[in-house]
Amino acid sequence: MSSTLRLKKACEYCKQTFIAQKTATRFCSHRCNSRAYKQNIREQKKSTVQQDLIQHTAKSSPKLSSVQSKQFLDIKETCILLKCSESTLRKLISKGNIRTALVGRKHIIRRTDIELLFDKAN
Ligand SMILES: [Zn+2]
């Protein structure tokens, strides 16, 4: 069944008026549709990159001073304390050099276990 609907609409990309056969039609042509689609993807990428940047700066904000007073630390906090990367720390954990407790799905590391690391090294 072909639609006999005729709607005058403005293309969302080139702003020209055109006759649409469906209410859902947003563009005058396939070209405008794909161009708008690409533009949309570009903008989405841009905004996710910006969000990542914002989140990244927010995530790296726990400061050494706030971490130093803690008894129990998560992976990120331990990294800050030891000034190492997460992958380095995870290697230490998987080798059994640092004991962790799983709280939910999070590795929690006791401060004293971090200090034990230095005892072992001596
Ligand atoms: Zn158009």
Question: How would you describe the overall organization of this protein?
Answer:
The chain has two domains: 7-59, no CATH class; 64-121, Arc Repressor Mutant, subunit A (Orthogonal Bundle). The strands form two sheets. Strands 3-5-4 form a three-stranded antiparallel β-sheet. The chain has a two-stranded antiparallel ribbon with strand order 1-2. The chain contains five helices and five strands. It has helices at residues 30-59, 64-68, 75-82, 86-95, 111-121; strands at residues 7-10, 17-20, 72-74, 101-103, 106-110. The model has no long low-confidence stretch (mean pLDDT 88). With 122 residues, the chain is of the alpha+beta class.
Largest sheet: 3 strands, antiparallel
Low-confidence stretches: none
Helix amount, in percent? 40-55%
Strand order, sheet with most strands: 3-5-4
Give helix and strand order, one letter per element, not per position: EEHHEHHEEH
**Distinct small-molecule ligands in the complex:** zinc ion
Short description:
This protein has 122 residues and is an alpha+beta fold. It is built from five helices and five strands.
